[in-house]
Amino acid sequence: MPCKMLFQHGFRLINRTLASTPIVVVSKKVVQTQQRSLFCNTKRLRDQGTTDLNSFVSRTHTCGELRSAHVGQEVTLCGWLQYERQGLFVVLRDFHGLTQILIPQDESSSHLKKLLMAAPLESVVQVSGTVIARPQEQANPKMSTGDIEVQLTHAEILNSCKKLPFEIKDFTKKTESLRMQYRYLDLRSQQLQYNLRLRSRLVMRMREYLCNLHGFVDVETPTLFKRTPGGAKEFLVPTREPGKFYSLPQSPQQFKQLLMVGGLDRYFQVARCYRDEGSRPNRQPEFTQVDIEMSFVDQAGIQRLIEGLLQYSWPEEKEALPAQFPSMTYAEAMATYGTDKPDTRFGMKIVDVTDFFRTSEAEFVQRALEQPGGSVKAICISEGAKHLKDKDMETMGELAKSECNQNVSWVILRPDGSWKARLVKLWTEEQKVQLSQLMGSKAGDVLLVAAGEHEATCSVLGKMRLECASLFESRGFVLRDPSLYHFLWVVDFPLFLSKEDQTDGLESAHHPFTAPHPRDLALLYSDPRKVRGQHYDLVLNGSEIGGGSIRIHNAELQRHVLENILKEDVSLLTHLLEALESGAPPHGGIALGLDRLVSLIVGASSIRDVIAFPKSFRGHDLMSNAPDTVSAEDLKPYHIQVTWPADHEADP
Questions:
Q1: What 8-state DSSP symbol labels residue 130?
Q2: pLDDT tens-digit readout, 31-76
Q3: Directed axis angle between helix 299-313 and helix 190-207, to 10°?
Q4: Which among 292, 327, 501, 555 is least buried, having the fewest CB atoms inside 10 angstroms?
Q5: Is 15 within 8 Å of 31 (Cβ atoms)?
Q6: CB atoms inside a 10 Å sphere around CB 611
Q7: Residue 391, Cβ neighbours under 10 Å: how many?
C-alpha cells in the first residue's frame, strides 16, 4: 500500500473508532494529535525500512518476534493452539512463528489452566503475560523464540476448533486432494505461509521498480472480451443476447498494444489470465502474469528491463542474480539441449556425430542418413554405467519410441575399459578412441545415440537427457542443484510453425502480432517458413517463465500476416487494424508467469503450492465443488440449453 494511502487508512480508522463511541466526546485537537502521532510513527517505520506487524490490532507482538531483549515486558499474543504439554505449557502459533506459554501451577491460576486444557488444538486464543527467560537447559535453539517464554496472566478462547481432517503440522502427510478440499486449513502450514508472503513481497518490489523507478503506469484491462484468433482455447461467457458470447482473455495482448497506440508509453499490470487447456500438468485454467509493454523499444531494451526487474525484486535470502543473463538462439538451444527451454544447470549436451557415423555399417544409421536432413547425435551420460541399470535403458528406449517415434542405441564404457553395445562390433580400437575424444567420454560413462531428422533426433535426446537426470536424482545423485538459478534468454524463434493437423497450413509460433526479424522481411512474402520472429523467451532452470516480442505496428503488414499467411478472419481484429492505422508507435513487451516464477524460487513441486486457492489437475475447485451445474431456469435468460450425452447419469 503506498505511503499516502496508508496514512489516509489510519486516519479513517481513528475517525471510525471515534464515531462509533457516542458517549465519549473527543475534541478536534485530540483527533489531530492522534493523527499526527500515527503519521509520525508511519514515517519512522518507512524511514527505518521496517514493518509494523502489530498496528491496528489487539496484540502487542507476533508469536515469532519475542527475544531475550523483551524479558520483563508485558505482552499480548493472538494465535492458534499448536501444542499442549501435560498442563504445564502450551505453544501458540501465528503466521510469524511459535511462542511457548507457561501456565502458572498455583491455585489462583487454576482457571487459566482449566480453560487452556479444555480448548482443542487449533482453537484461536488471546493470551497476555510477562516475558521471562527460559532456564538455560530448557532453551530451544530450533525455535526463533526458544530463549524465552511468556508467563501467563490472562487467556481468552476467541473461537474453539472442531476436530479437523488433518493436523496442522508440516511433517503430516496429506494427499493433495485432501489439502485442496480443506485449503483454508492447508494455508496455515508454514510452507504455504512462506510461499504466499514471498510472492507478495516479490510483486510489491516489482511495482516499486516499474512504477516508482521507471515510470510505468499500472492499468487494469477488461476481463470480458471477444475471441482472439490463434493461441490457446478461451473460456466463453454467455450473454443475454442470443448467440453472443464474451471470451475471457488468455492475456491482455491486444489491450496493451492499444494502450501504446493511446500514448501510455509504459504499461504494467499484474494480470489475471484464462486458458481452457484441459488437463495439463503444472497448468491452471486461471493464472497470473506480470504483463509489460513499452513504446519505442527494441528486444535488447526489454531484456535489460526484465534483468533489472528481477535483480531488484529477487528475495534477499537468495543468492544475488548476475547483472546480465546469457542468451542463446532457438537453433542453438535445440541443437545443444533438444528443447527451446534448456536447463543449463547440468551438462550432458548433444553432440553431432554424423561425420563419425557416415562410414558405419549400422542399418538404422544408414537409413537415417539417406533421408533429407538426416543426422546422428549423441549425449554422454557421465558415470552412467554406475547409476543406470539395464531396465532403465530399456524403459527409456520404450519412452523414446512411444513419445518421439525414435530408436536410440546405448554404448556402455565399462570401468575396466571394455565397451558394450551392438555397434561396437563394427568399430576398431582407433574409432573407439576417436569417438571418446569427440564425446569427451571416459570409462564408466554411457553414450546414448540417436539417428534421424535433425530436430526430431535432438528432441528425443533432449527428453532422454532430462529422464537421465531424474533417474540419477531418484538415486541420490543430484545433477540439478535446487539452490542454483540459471536464467537464459532464448531468441530468434521461427515466426511460424506448421500446423499439426495440416501439412501446408501455418500457425504463429508465438502469437499473430509478433514482428518478423528485420533481416527476414523479404522472406515473409516468398518463403514464410524461413522467417525468424522478434520473439524472446526467458527460461529459468528448464522452465519457461516469460515470453514476449516486438510487435507489428504497421497495419498493412499485420493484415498480410493474418489474411495471407495464417488464413485468419480479419474481421475479428478490425479494431486493432484500425488502431495501427492511427499512428501506432513501434512497441514491444513481455509477460512473466508469476505462478511459475515463484514456484521455482521456493522450490515447490507444483505451481498449486504458490497459489492461495488453486484448481485441481482437471480444473476443479475441490473446496467449493466448482464448476457446478446450473438450473434450466437460470440458463434461460442466456438462451442456452444443456444437451447431455447418452451415457450421462443424472446427479442425485
A1: E
A2: 555 556 555 655 555 555 678 999 999 999 999 999 999 999 999 9
A3: 130
A4: 501
A5: yes
A6: 23
A7: 8
